[in-house]
Design a protein that fits this description.
By secondary structure, this protein is of the alpha+beta class. The protein is 29% helix and 25% strand.
Length: 310
């Protein structure tokens, strides 16, 4: 791998010095408040800079991971080697007629609010989803009967080698919490949604109702990654966990929520190791009790911590 100072100088050349941090704690950027340090934490402000970063990392064979708002990821306590590319400053949004184009760092909840302000319907389901546009595309995020696949028109991604590619809806292979994006190791930079003209009051009424339902049912008062597990065919993950008697089960500071069993919350200074250990307990117990395999929806990344010397 290229010398550390050479890497640092090149990164600062691409995105400016103030947008490059070294040995940066990632718990500051994840909604679980978990995670060790990133060797390089880089925040491009333009699509061109993001493309250059990906191309540079590929050329120098430096590991690179993109990060939106850290809502559906658990970063292990050993942190991430190489470059973490934060997309939070890719935050431009434009509306033309019934089409909305948004860069990947925008929170999908904010895109939903922008649709409301422009009297556009179709994104109401996303008003409470805690994720960036990029993350929402990667997993075809959905809630309350709506999914990204219902409204997406096209997506601009950068390939692993640094090439910009435009994908149309059918190219994305959107399914339940899946898409072609992680399979091809693409990074989402921009998305265009095809919405419909609607009535402001009607759209707002739906969003208010969904917000109230979410606040009543979900443990929003604690850090979490949202729903930890995918819905198993024929079942609901939360119901299986609840019926397994796991609510309130703790490992360190991580706890299976007493309010919604599908959530694991950072109740009291949890580590990523606590969180992951509790996930495994839940999976094992549900398998033993009901014979159902729970697959994680949350993405677990990074390095295990180095054991302390005795």
């Amino acid at each position: 791998m290229t010398d550390r100072n050479i890497i640092l100088n090149k990164l600062q050349e691409i995105v400016a010095e103030e947008n490059v941090l070294t040995d940066e704690p990632l718990h500051n950027y994840t909604m679980t408040r978990l995670g060790g340090v990133a060797d390089y934490f880089v925040t491009p402000t333009t699509i061109a800079a993001a493309q250059q970063l990906v191309a540079f990392a590929a050329e120098e064979r430096i590991p690179l991971m993109s990060l939106g708002n850290g809502s559906n990821v658990i970063v292990k306590d050993g942190g991430i080697r190489g470059i973490v590319m934060s997309l939070k400053k890719l935050n431009e949004l434009t509306v033309e007629g019934d089409r909305m184009t948004v860069q990947s760092g925008i929170d999908i909840r904010d895109a939903s609010k922008a649709a409301l302000q422009n009297c556009l319907t179709g994104l109401e389901f996303a008003c409470g989803i805690p994720g960036s546009i990029g993350g929402a595309l990667v997993m075809n995020a959905g809630a309350y009967g709506g999914e990204i696949k219902d409204v997406i028109d096209s997506v601009v991604v950068v390939s692993e080698e640094g090439e910009l590619v435009t994908l149309l809806k059918d190219d994305l292979q959107l399914g339940y919490r899946t898409s072609v994006i992680p399979k091809k190791k693409y990074t989402v930079l921009q998305a265009t949604f095809q919405l419909q003209k609607g009535d402001y009051d009607s759209i707002k009424s739906v969003m208010d109702d969904l917000t109230q339902r979410r606040e009543e049912k979900q443990p929003l008062e604690y850090p979490s990654c949202g729903s930890v597990f995918k819905r198993p065919p024929g079942y609901f993950a939360g119901k299986l966990i609840q019926d397994s008697g796991l609510q309130g089960t703790r490992v360190g500071g991580a706890e299976v929520s007493r309010k919604h069993a599908g959530f694991i919350v950072n109740k009291d200074g949890a580590t990523a190791t606590d969180y992951i250990s509790l996930i495994k307990i839940v999976q094992r117990t549900v398998k033993e009790t009901f014979g159902v395999e729970l697959e994680t929806e949350v993405k677990i990344v990074g390095e295990d911590p180095i054991p302390a010397e005795r």
